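Table S2 (continued). Query chain:
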Amino acid sequence: MDRTVIAYVIYLAVSIALTIWVARTLSRNGRIFLADVLHGNEKLAEAVNHLLVVGFYLVNLGFVALYLSGDRTIEDTRGIFEALSTKLGVVLLVLGVMHLGNVYVLNRIRRRGVMEREQLPPVTPQEWIAPTAGA
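Corresponding output:
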């Protein structure tokens, strides 16, 4: 078998496995965060979490597929390792950037929700007191 094809197979297997692992980790740990962001609405949090995971898969697997082809033929075993380290390194960086982007957006939504909650008084006013002239 051609070494370039071997590198492609290894690259796809590792990239897909990493994408699935990161997506499951983000999904599992993101549920709690989303429930807080969405004020305890568990059904909405689960739906948003699922949509984020689907988007995560589409973007990352699309990138993995686009980045599959190489511009050179791999001629020896060392070339396999070099090609794989470059390709997998870029995939890991993209996974990390996607993760940080998700956390950033969700944190912005969460902050906005916290600020909206803080603007409401904890109890409604019971009465109104007119200001005094001497004060």
